Amino acid sequence: MSSTRSESGDSAVAAPLARIALALLALAAVGALLIAEHLKSRTALAGSAIWRPSTGVFDPQTSTASFSFTSPYADDVTVSIVSREAGKVVAVIARNYPIARYRRTEQFRWSGRTTTGALEPNGTYVAQVHFDRLARTTQVPQISFDLMRSAR
């Protein structure tokens, strides 16, 4: 009889432990899935897109900066230029621009001017792309321009 009590006592302890272990396993699986999705969406923008800069240094009085890219996502994007020194958007080149999956975009061009038309000072500028449906924005160091106005 004492072995029956021992077995029932063991099963009374084992059942709650099994439930706790199962709950922890489920929680770990959900956490791993969330982390994987976060990392996938974060690295996919800059890592899997193909960035094609066309110019590096330009004088806005004689030329424009231009670039295009290919994305693994079909989305509407907003393409901006950011001052590396100031860390702020100085010009919006395209807003709600539809891009197709794995299709090269048109050449985006920047004249060296702000959205309001003022000429930006000499400095380094990078492209920034906001993917609307993905709700993600990435600055693209591969698309970097040195604006150098000639003295006139």
**Uncertain spans, ≥5 residues at pLDDT below 50?**
none
Order of SSEs? HEEEEEEEE
Overall mean pLDDT score?
82
Question: Helical element count?
Answer: 1
Architecture of the largest domain, CATH level 2? Sandwich
Shape, please?
elongated
User: CATH class of the largest domain, anyone?
Assistant: Mainly Beta
Number of domains: 2
**Which range best describes the helical content: under 10%, 10-25%, 25-40%, 40-55%, 55-70% or over 70%?**
25-40%
The count of β-strands is 8
- Largest sheet data: 5 strands, mixed
The CATH topology of the largest domain is what?
A: Immunoglobulin-like
Q: Strand percentage, roughly?
A: 35-45%
Largest sheet: spatial strand order? 2-8-7-4-5
Separation of the first and last Cα atoms: 105 Å
Radius of gyration: 27 Å
Instruction: Output the structural class.
Output: alpha+beta
Description:
This protein is an alpha+beta fold and about 150 residues long. It has 2 domains: about 50 residues; about 100 residues, Sandwich (Immunoglobulin-like). The protein contains 1 helix and 8 strands. The strands form 2 sheets. A 5-stranded mixed sheet has the order 2-8-7-4-5. A hairpin with a 5-residue loop joins strand 4 and strand 5. The protein is elongated, with a radius of gyration of 27 Å.
Characteristic key phrases:
single chain, 152 residues, alpha+beta, Immunoglobulin-like, 2 domains, 31% helix, 37% strand, elongated
Which secondary structure elements does this structure contain, and how are they paired or packed?
Elements lengths: L1 H47 L1 E4 L3 E2 L6 E6 L4 E9 L5 E11 L8 E3 L12 E9 L4 E12 L5
Parallel strand pairs: 2-8
Antiparallel strand pairs: 1-3, 3-6, 4-5, 4-7, 7-8
